[in-house]
Fold this protein.
Amino acid sequence: MKIKQSIAISESGYIFNPSTGESFSINQTGVEIFNLLKEEKTFEEISSIVIKKFNTDKDTFEKDYNDFTGLLKQHQIVELENGK
Amino acid sequence: MGNKTYTIAVTGLNAIDSPGPGIAVIRCLRESTTMDIRIIGLAYESLEPGIYMHNLVDKTYQIPYPGAGAESLLSRLEYIHQKENLDVIIPNFDAELFPFIKLEPKLKKMGISTFLPTETQFEERHKINLPEFGRKYNIPVPHSKAIYSVAEIPGLINEFSYPMVAKGKYYDAEIVQSPEQMFTCFNKINTKWGLPVIIQQFIKGAEYNSTGLGDGKGNIISAFPMRKQYITDKGKAWGGISIDDEEILKLTHHFIHSTKWRGGFELELIKDFSNSFYLLEINPRMPAWIYLSVGVGQNIPEALVKLALSKKVEPFKTFKVGKMFVRYSYELIVDVDEFHKISTNGEL
């Protein structure tokens, strides 16, 4: 999963999508995952970093990760496989 | 700046809650870094706020309503020209564009330039002709139809499904949920704007607009998209943001290029749940939010004036994304003498 290059995020977790004009606010955990996705880290890498940092378990992380990335897809923040 | 001061007449001074574009156009012209300008306001009503904005408008004259006919307008413009020596006129209302297009050659002879769409462009983009326009230029538009009688309302369900949008030929649009509501709406629009009433299939989605400027030869001088962030009960954008949606830009470029559009314009678009864009309307003049063009770095009114004066205009290549506008209203305090002057003398 790749975050679109044009998507910007502020330190406080404010995301602006310049294509659609939509903006979102995400929490600190979201910012962490968003930035790791932007660095093109794999699911396993992200999982290990977030579980350690936020003191959570693998099942909870996986569920929350899928919810979060589902929202990113829905709002066209990540590139789909055809590059769009 | 150059030595010559250009005198530019602008209509649409009704900077009310659903504003005409005039004041926004003037604000753009006032920010020109390449031209010295003097602004002559052209108003229909004595309470159009722009008449009293002396920091923006140097002098205002009342002009007759478009219904009075082109000759009546011409005679008034001759009087104003005699006093002010106009270089350019920028009309900003849909309803007045037709007489101004008709008068273009006569105005040119008088030494007044305009930069308007051609009569063919003006007619074929009309709401009534939008389906044909979509087919001709391969642009997706919602199904629509012009109706002339309430007797046609029951049959609409054979072609459309509720909700539908009922529109006046120049202005007004209302979402209609049932045949009963359509009867009321038809009569309301007919009383205000006359026939036909245009019925358009309602499409649920996010509203987008684009504005731009074509040189009349198929070249794109300016184009950029905007997403409405806050919409008033009249469907007007109270807040908006410049975006870089490639689909909208492609569609806007295609529109300018294929129609060889001459002048400013606004495209009203909607994106449905499958991310497909539909063109809802083409406004053949600059929008009321045109001041955003200065914000994004493409001063469209300034470029339009230069085109009208046959000056060379380099097409804008980039624009700033994420520039927002938030509209506001405030009260001007006006001396009653000023109101009397414009009401009785027709000039201020």
User: Anything to note?
Assistant: Chain B has a mean pLDDT of 94.
